[in-house]
Amino acid sequence: MYGKVRGIQDHGINIWRGIPFAAPPTGELRFRAPQPPASWNGVRDAFAFGPVCHQPPDRKGTRFPGGTPVYDEDCLYLNVWAPAGAESLPVMVWIHGGTFLTGAGSQPLFDGAALALSGNVVVVSVNYRLGPFGFLHLAPLGDDYSSNVGLLDQIAALEWTRGNIAGFGGDPQRITVFGESAGSMSIAALLAMPAARGLLTGAIMQSGPSQAFRPEQGEAVALGLLAELGIDRANAGKLLELPAEAIMEAAGRLVQRLTGGSPAMIFQPVVDSLTLPEEPVRAVANGSAAGIPLLIGTNAHEGHYFFREGAQVPAIEESLKVLQQALGTPDLSELASHYPANWEGPAGILTDLFFWGGAIAFAESQLEHGPVWMYRFDWGVKEHPLLLRAVHTAEIPYVFGNMSHLRDLGLAISPPMESLSSSMQNAWIAFAHGGRPGTRDLPWPEYGLTERATLIFDETACVVKDPDPEKRRLVFKYIS
Known about the structure:
alpha/beta, Rossmann fold, two-stranded parallel ribbon, 14 helices, globular, Carboxylesterase_B_AS
């Protein structure tokens, strides 16, 4: 306990914003594991969100519509939503996505009020260091640096939750982490990290498989950033002296140079002996997440978020090279022969090989060690330019019950959309309460290698056994 906080109450929900869960990671603490926050006297107001971690600007206004947040290295804050009178309720901790480069727990899309109220749960959203500040593999440069500090930030937030959430009406023995995209990939890593053991009792992974660089890949990125900054390895200590903006500008140049604007992520978790000693999917297969229930799934058209009709898309041969670089896979030309020879080909490959295939591989790695449930989100909205298909991120407003986000995108909320949101929320809530997502209205059998039962969320939700088995067998030829 670091001190008392004062929140607000709104429509039956108690809300606390901007609670520090770690010391500001500035000065000598830049690139280091998070440290406990300083205690305070009196009562601290928790009315406003804390600063957002440094990231590329939100030029389209999609992350923070209607305003521009404060960006700062001092960004390790979390937010809590709890029903009025909450006592020993299950806790759901949200880890946001954004390619490990963008995002924040304070994004309006992730407002936890509706989920907390409808589910009788306590919702927590967290920030973690991003891009070069959170995922630069600096441990090889000496004991003054840590690697995977963005993941260590998430662990610090979970430690804070376990130690303090009872004071907000939550049960520290029932903590479910849920996250999407890089948030889901973060959860994969947390399930493999020794420091995270005992901090969570359930995991929900939305549209993000196991992902981690090999040490030599991570070190190459770190040295590449040093080169962009004109710093040699022997003088890496200058990283602590530079303005954060100079590091972000250099990181932007490095991202562009290495990816050419492709979906590849140069900042991501890295296998590191002190923090993430084994690639997550292998660690889980070896029992690192034994006993932890897992709910995992993807959207039917993830890749159409990254490859879109009318957008500037490279020729098919160049797109395949981009995917090979992004996914770390060998020649994809044979696989590509099974997909359209236009922009939809790379979109389909990214969906099936990276997202869907990766989710199945991770699910299979946990089957001997804990119960697993698999889903697929298929819902699309006719005539909408982006949400016509079930693209990456499309399920998030349904899970949170934040349908106003869809209205802001120009959609009229129909009864089937409300029903879909209720079905997803009820399943996620049931999982948080009891470790199983099935409900009386929507039974959901466990996933297994024989039937591969998958809950399809569409206009009507139903269980399908082994959806698209031929495609599954095809893509698994490319998954090591």
